[in-house]
Amino acid sequence: MQKNYGENLLKPYAIKSINSKGRIYKEINQFVRTPYQRDRDRIIHSSSFRRLKHKTQVFVNTEGDHYRTRLTHSMEVSQIARTLARFLGLNEDLSETLSLSHDLGHTPFGHAGEEILNKCMKNFGGFDHNVQTLRIVTLLENKYYKFHGLNLSIETLDGLIKHNGPVNKLDIYKKNLEEKLFKGKINFSNFPSLEAQVAAISDDIAYNNHDLEDGLRAGLFTIKKFSSIPFVYKLIKKHLEKIKNFRREVIVSQIVRELINLMVVDVIKTTKENLKKIKPKTVYDVYKQDHLIVDFSKEIKELDKQIKDFLKRNMYNHKKVITNTKRGQKIIKDLFMCLSRNPKEHINKDILKKNKKERAVADFIAGMTDRYAINLHKKIR
Fold first, then answer.
1. Cα 171 off chain centre by
2. Distance between CA atoms of residues 104 and 46, nearest Å
3. 159 has a pLDDT exceeding 60
4. CA-based nearest residue to 59, from 111, 4, 130
5. In this predicted model, what pLDDT tens digit does every residue of 316-338 receive, in sequence order?
6. d(CA 305, CA 310)
7. Answer CATH for 1-381 from 3.30.70.2190, 1.10.3210.10, 3.30.360.10, 3.90.550.10
8. CA 291, CA 307: separation in Å to the nearest integer?
């Protein structure tokens, strides 16, 4: 008999442990922890999660200690997700687990690394960091006697697969994951759970606002330039008047904090309005929707878009960032070519037996930290 774990206070359309579809490999449930707490703990204790400490968000990791890494980003996403899930009566443990694990599959050097590795893998099944996350949690982590991967719950796997919504193109999943891995327990075309939607929108909130903070701290653009966005100017006008009285870092932190709070409150309000219209009675009513329920209002969607456009122009396409981007891409391309010629020197022979050479090389490179990739490149080039 499954335990309730005190989940009786959750909304009827929230994910509950008692209704879990279980795991790919059957395990006995624990009294102490819910299945999703166990998933979270497995993520935190994984090698892939620890390596996020030295994988950059935008900047190359050797640049400084105060810029965000994939690890700090994942923790910040989980903090926002816990707030949203708790307020909306959803399963906080599941939202936290999805938030902490959503970036496990990222390469060194941010999205630039993923882009070049995908090009290198063009003729060998391609590379996608979301799919790589699934490879890590189902195949690559190796800590148990009876199975590879972390054997996460089906609900966690479903949320990771649908981080960006329903999946209609399955080719890259079929090429990069074991066939029949999910044993028909996941419907790829259904919308994700509300807990997964919370994790996804929390990622969006954290990514934009914290990149904004890093960009301001790095001097890639000024507060005044950022205030050129009309909606933003209304929000930060009062802070611009305090520049003479407070350190710039304090003002930046206050602006970012207010923007995050604005977005979080908006998500709560919009989601509650959507739930009133839809009136879901079970999680299956959520799955069968044709649109997201956890969402921004139209006004904040526009603000979100304007911030993304601003960051693209003034941060991601900044000369300094592009220089680092090109350097990182060259390192990954050189590593792929060199390791493909002589994989046995650096990759375990058992791994090479189980995977095609190029996929094993891609897994190896994707798992590297920025500094490991830089140091290995110096050795083998």
1. 21
2. 10
3. yes
4. 111
5. 999 988 998 899 999 999 999 99
6. 9
7. 1.10.3210.10
8. 23
